[in-house]
Write a structure and sequence with these properties.
Elements lengths: L1 H18 L6 E11 L7 E8 L9 E4 L5 H14 L2 E10 L2 E10 L1
Parallel strand pairs: 3-5
Antiparallel strand pairs: 1-2, 1-4, 2-3, 4-5
């Protein structure tokens, strides 16, 4: 019974786990060159361009309002921009044509 169960569920479970690994994320760091807000795009918060230029479409990454840490990430990015801190940004997906921010950290 266990062998049959593993035979039918083993590969699909392994593929799901592989698809959710953080190693598929992209990360880049630098200083925030542009902090952009656009009320015309529903559900999207700040979009950023950084120095050096990010390896994304047009060099942009954006924070979507359905991110569970939306307010905290917004605060960190605003502080990082105004204080010219170095920030690291990570994304795993693209939404609306731009990389969607998953998490961020800023430091001196």
């Amino acid at each position: 019974m266990k062998a049959k169960l593993f035979k039918y569920l083993g590969l699909p479970c392994a593929l799901v786990m592989l698809g959710n690994t953080p190693s598929l994320a992209d990360t880049a760091s630098g200083t925030i060159r542009e902090y952009h807000l656009n009320s015309q795009v529903a559900g999207r918060g700040v979009c950023l361009q950084m120095n050096p230029t990010l390896p994304t479409v047009g060099g942009w990454v954006c924070l979507w309002k359905d991110n569970p840490l939306y307010q905290e990430i917004t605060d960190i990015l605003r502080e990082g921009y105004s204080s010219r801190k170095t920030c690291a940004v990570t994304w795993t997906t693209y939404r609306g044509g731009y990389a969607a921010i998953d998490w961020v950290s800023c430091y001196n």
